[in-house]
C-alpha cells in the first residue's frame, strides 16, 4: 500500500465496476427516511459522496431538488451524466470539507456509505450549520454481517487476509457480526438528536468471479500494490472455487441512522 494514497479517491478508478457490482439499498429504506424526516416535495437535499448515484436515484425519481458533493472527478462526471435529464439535480466536484455551502439552506443532508470519510472535526458541525431549522442528517451504511456466528467463509478467508493485509492492516480479533448486533455510530449530541435507527437485510449470491469484482471496488483492495492485490484476489478466488463449490452467499445489512438538528433556530 502506498503510504500517501488517499483512500477516499480509490473509487474514482473503478466507476463503472462500482456501479454494476455494489449492493443496492432497499426502497423501504428511502420510504422510511422520507417519512421520518417529513420531507415535502419542495425539500432541498444535499448528498455527500453520491458515488455512482445508487442512493441518489430514489430521491431523483421522487422529484426532490438535490445537490450532490462528490470528491472524485470521474465519479462526479458519471453521476452528472446519469441524471443529466433531471433539472433538479446538480453536482459539485470537491471535498465536502472544502465546499462553501449556504447556512440553513437544506432540509436533509444524507450520505450513503461515505460519511465515515468526512474529517471528524467538521463531520457534524458543518451539516448543523447548513441545515434548516428542524432539518435532518441521514447516515446510510453498508454493513457486512453474518446469519450465524459460525460463518464458514469468513473464517476460511481470514488466513488470506492475514497474509496480504489489504489496506495495510489486519485485525486478528475480528469476528462475524449479526444484523441484530448492529448499533448506530456515535454522533455529536451537541448538534443532533437521534430519531431513528433501522437495518435492512440484503443477501446476495456471488460466483468466485463476481465476488472478486466486488472486492475490486473496496478501498483496502484498491490501495494494494498491483502484484500483491492480484495474488490476494487469486487466493480468494481459489478458496471459493475449491472449498465452496464456486459460489458463496454474502449477507449485508444496510443501516439507516436519522439525526435531527438540535436547536431552536
UniProtKB/TrEMBL annotation:
One of its GO terms (molecular function) is rRNA (adenine-N6,N6-)-dimethyltransferase activity. Gene3D superfamilies: Vaccinia Virus protein VP39 (3.40.50.150). Keywords: Methyltransferase, S-adenosyl-L-methionine, Transferase. It holds the Pfam family Methyltransf_11. PANTHER family: METHYLTRANSF_11 DOMAIN-CONTAINING PROTEIN, METHYLTRANSFERASE TYPE 11 DOMAIN-CONTAINING PROTEIN. Belongs to the methyltransferase superfamily. This is Methyltransferase domain-containing protein.
Amino acid at each position: 500500500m502506498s503510504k500517501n494514497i488517499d483512500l477516499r479517491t480509490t473509487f474514482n478508478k473503478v466507476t463503472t465496476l462500482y456501479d454494476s457490482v455494489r449492493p443496492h439499498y432497499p426502497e423501504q429504506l428511502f420510504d422510511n427516511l422520507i417519512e421520518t424526516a417529513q420531507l415535502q416535495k419542495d425539500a432541498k437535499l444535499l448528498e455527500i459522496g453520491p458515488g455512482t448515484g445508487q442512493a441518489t436515484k430514489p430521491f431523483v425519481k421522487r422529484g426532490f431538488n438535490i445537490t450532490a458533493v462528490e470528491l472524485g472527478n470521474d465519479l462526479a462526471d458519471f453521476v452528472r451524466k446519469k441524471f443529466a435529464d433531471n433539472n433538479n439535480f446538480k453536482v459539485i466536484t470537491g471535498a465536502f470539507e472544502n465546499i462553501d455551502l449556504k447556512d440553513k439552506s437544506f432540509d436533509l443532508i444524507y450520505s450513503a456509505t461515505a460519511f465515515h470519510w468526512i474529517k471528524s472535526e467538521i463531520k457534524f458541525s458543518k451539516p448543523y450549520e447548513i441545515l434548516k431549522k428542524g432539518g435532518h442528517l441521514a447516515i446510510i451504511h453498508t454493513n457486512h454481517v453474518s446469519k450465524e456466528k459460525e460463518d464458514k467463509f469468513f473464517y476460511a478467508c481470514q488466513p488470506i487476509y492475514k497474509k496480504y493485509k489489504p489496506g495495510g492492516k489486519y485485525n486478528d480479533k475480528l469476528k462475524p457480526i449479526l444484523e441484530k448486533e448492529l448499533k448506530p455510530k456515535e454522533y455529536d449530541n451537541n448538534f443532533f438528536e437521534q430519531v431513528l435507527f433501522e437495518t435492512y437485510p440484503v443477501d446476495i449470491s456471488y460466483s468466485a468471479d463476481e465476488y472478486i469484482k466486488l472486492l475490486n471496488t473496496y478501498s483496502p483492495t484498491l490501495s494494494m500494490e498491483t502484484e500483491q492485490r492480484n495474488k490476494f484476489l487469486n487466493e480468494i478466488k481459489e478458496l471459493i472455487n475449491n472449498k465452496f463449490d464456486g459460489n458463496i452467499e454474502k449477507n449485508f445489512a444496510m443501516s439507516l441512522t436519522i439525526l435531527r438538528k438540535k436547536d431552536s433556530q
